[in-house]
Amino acid sequence: MKLTEIIQPVTLTETVGCTDLDITGIQMDSRLIEPGQLFVAVRGTQTDGHAYIDKAIEKGAVAVVCEQIPEVRQPGVTYLSTPDTEDAVGKLATTFYGDPTSKLDLVGVTGTNGKTTIATLLYDMFRHFGYKVGLLSTVCNYIDGEAIPTDHTTPDPITLNRLLGRMADEGCKYAFMEVSSHSVAQKRIGGLKFAGGIFTNLTRDHLDYHKTVENYLKAKKAFFDGLPKTAFALTNADDKNGMVMVQNTRAKVATYSLRTLCDFKGKVLEDGFEGMLMDINQREVNVQFIGRFNASNLLAVYGAACLLGKQPEEVLIALSMLRPVSGRFDALRSPKGYTAIVDYAHTPDALENVLNAIQEVLDGRGKVITVVGAGGNRDKGKRPLMAQEAVKQSDKVIITSDNPRFEEPQDIINDMLAGVSKEDMSRVLAIVERKEAIRTACMLAQPGDVILVAGKGHENYQDVKGVKHHFDDKEVLKEVFDNEL
Question: Over 70: is that where the pLDDT of 208 sits?
């Protein structure tokens, strides 16, 4: 594509060189530059792309978009300046990849908990309806049936547009994506057109980045503020921030709730470890999910599908056939007669939700043993809160490693133990090795008990000192179960 076309949506303050150039690709990482590409210098949280302009040119960049044109310039290279390259890069990528979201219906899901479940279930449901569908999620990206591994909840704007471009080219009618607070704050979704937005809930998370809950809320709200009039904004009326999110949106507002009057109303009639019987808008449906938080997620899925034009009856039939997302309240039955549940819960609120669901189903008929850790180099303030939440609703708690990253696992465990009172310490064990912690929980469990292994869910690695070692909670549990036979 010609450079003159690519730069159309961006305000330029200065241009040095020829814009009648053929551009073969766009990059914001100088290491990925190939000959004939455009390099966009973005000031990131870790590094400033302006320091790598010459490196990008050495690798073959023929044009550079930056905030300040260098005094020393390379001959034959076009330099363009714009006030905010972070804002510009999404628009440039959207244009280069043929404005993919004008060719498919893109729905974004944001909130602290439930994003992966809702986005994935919508992807599964619309494939069940017979459409080609794309998914952009924490667990994996999919272009219809093709899996594309992922590193971030929301990819950078260039990767995002490249994936969406492929989805459009391959005939996808819908795409569902998780929209993280980071992606909004860093303008990674700039240039995308959304057909709808869904808000799940808002609790403490990512304060290592946002610093305050208010900043975190503003980042989520900015997504709804940016939705067009043609889109829908579906919000959780049970969350105290639910209506705050949509107060300034131009989109058509709809609500879902388990507790109050709304557009999509649900109620749990019966629940067990096999699933729930729900009432949704005065129709009963059996679903293969457990817990009130999942009932709320399913209402969001139901509401979004109806807002996208599907008939309520066909949506309910599809809901009854959907299965839980990998690593999200994943229940495994032990030969000894106890249940193990693997869940991604890594915030105090998510842990509370999962333990509530377990206690509701158990109804005092068994004990709960929780294995939990906290990630290294992340919000330290939630560590004691995680331990408190685990102790509050468990008979036994084993505090262990999660992804320690560049911290010492024992230091993280000590931060968590600081949240446990002296009276409760008798019910708490600290075991650094996660595998050993899971095995110990299984040894302690009796028939009818439930073990919750929280924090990693779908992840099949442990991040230690920058190296990802293979580790899968479900695999460890299955090994233990095999030895019980």
Answer: no
pTM over 0.90: no
Question: DSSP assignment of 47-88, as one string?
Answer: -BGGGGHHHHHHTT--EEEESS--SS--TT-EEEE-S-HHHH
Q: Is 41 helix (H, G, I), strand (E, B) or coil?
A: coil
Q: To which residue do tokens 């230690």 refer?
A: 464
Per-residue pLDDT band at 344 (split at 50, 70, 90): very high
**Secondary structure of residue 7 in the 3-state scheme:** coil
Nearest to 135 by CA among 98, 172, 83: 172
Give pLDDT, residue 151.
65
**Lateral strand order in the sheet of 428-430:** 330-333, 339-343, 450-454, 368-372, 396-399, 428-430
Instruction: Report which residue type is found at 113.
Output: N
Q: Tell me, what's the pLDDT at 211?
A: 55
DSSP label of 324: P
Q: Which contiguous run of DSSP H or E holds residue 108? A: strand 105-110
Taking only the tens place, the pLDDT of each residue in 135-155 is 999 888 999 999 997 765 567
Q: Name residue, tokens 């980045």.
A: 209
Q: Are 268 and 287 in contact (CB under 8 A)?
A: no
CA 144 remoteness from chain centre: 19
The residues, ordered by sequence, that sit 6+ positions from 111 with a Cβ below 8 Å of its Cβ are 198, 199, 200, 201, 202, 220, 236, 239
Bridge pairing between strands 141-143 and 133-136: antiparallel
Residue 75 predicted with pLDDT over 80? yes
With b for 16 or more beta-carbon neighbours within 10 A and e for fewer, the 352-375 pattern comes to bbbbebbeebbeeebbbbbbbbbb
Please name which of 59, 54, 63 lies closest in space to residue 23, comparing C-alpha atoms: 63
CA distances from 62 to 9, 18, 127, 169, 309 (A): 20, 10, 41, 27, 46
Tell me how far apart the alpha carbons of residues 87 and 396 are, in angstroms, rounded to a whole number. 49
Cβ proximity of 304 and 196 under 8 Å: yes
Integer Cα distance of 394 and 390 in angstroms = 6
Alpha-carbon dihedral of residues 475, 477, 478, 479, nearest 10 degrees?
90
- pLDDT (tens digit, 9 = 90+) per residue, 373-390? 999 998 899 999 999 999
**Dihedral sign of CA atoms 43, 47, 50, 56 in order:** negative
Spatial distance between the Cα atoms of 23 and 419, rounded to a whole number of angstroms: 55
Whole-angstrom Cα distance, residue 187 to residue 292? 33
Enclosing H/E stretch for 93: helix 85-96
User: CB-hemisphere CA count at 13 Å for 360?
Assistant: 18
What backbone phi and psi angles, to 5 degrees, belong to 38? Answer: -100, 130
